[in-house]
Amino acid sequence: MTMTKWELLDEAYATLRASVAGVPADGWDRPTPCAQWNVTQVLQHAAGDQLAYAARLTGGPGPTEDPFAPSGVLAGPPTGLLDPALAAAAEAFSAVAPGDHDVAVPLPPFAVPAETAVGAAALDAAVHAWDIAVATGRPPALTDALATALRPAADVLAEPLRGFDYGPVFSLAPGADHGAAAQLLAFLGRDPAWAAPVA
C-alpha cells in the first residue's frame, strides 16, 4: 500500500479501502445515497476520481471511463480497480509539498493550495466510503474527527460544484445535536440518516 506524507489523505484512503472490503458478495447491486448509482457504480466513480487527481498532478493516464457515468460492470475484483487508483493518487500526492500554492486538481478552480487539493481528494474518498458502508448496512465510515478535518476543503469547493458534484444542502432537523459528520454530509447534499432499503 502506497502511503503519502499527508495523514488526512492516508486516513481517507484507509476508510475507503475498509468500506469496499466490507461489501458482501451480494452487495454490489444495492442502492446507495447517490440516487442514480449502485454500490459498484460508486466504487467506479470513487476510483475514477482518484485517478483523475493523479493524472492532473503527474500528466499520467486518467480513468478509462467517465467517473460521472460509471457502467456498473467490473472487469475483475473490486480491489483490482480500487487499489491501483489509490496507489497512483497516493504516489502523486506524495510529491506535493505543504504550502504549495498552485496544485492541479481535476475540477474547478483547477488549481488550489496544497492543503485544499489534499483535502478535496480525501473528501471524495471518505464521503464515498460512507456511501458504500451505509448502502451495505454497515456502520457509517465517516467519523466526526475525520469530518472536522475535511470540512475546510468542503467549505472551499462545495459551492462552485453545487448541482454538479454536490446536491443542495440537506436540511437537518432543528434543535438536534448533529455531529460534525452529519453536518458535513448535509452540507454536501446527503441525508446523514440515509439507510439501505429493507429487502
UniProtKB/TrEMBL annotation:
Residues 10-133 form the Mycothiol-dependent maleylpyruvate isomerase metal-binding domain. It comes from the Bacteria. Pfam families: MDMPI_N. InterPro entries: CHP03086 (IPR017520), DinB/YfiT-like (IPR034660), Maleyloyr_isom (IPR017517), MDMPI_metal-binding (IPR024344). It comes from Streptomyces avidinii. This is Uncharacterized protein (TIGR03086 family).
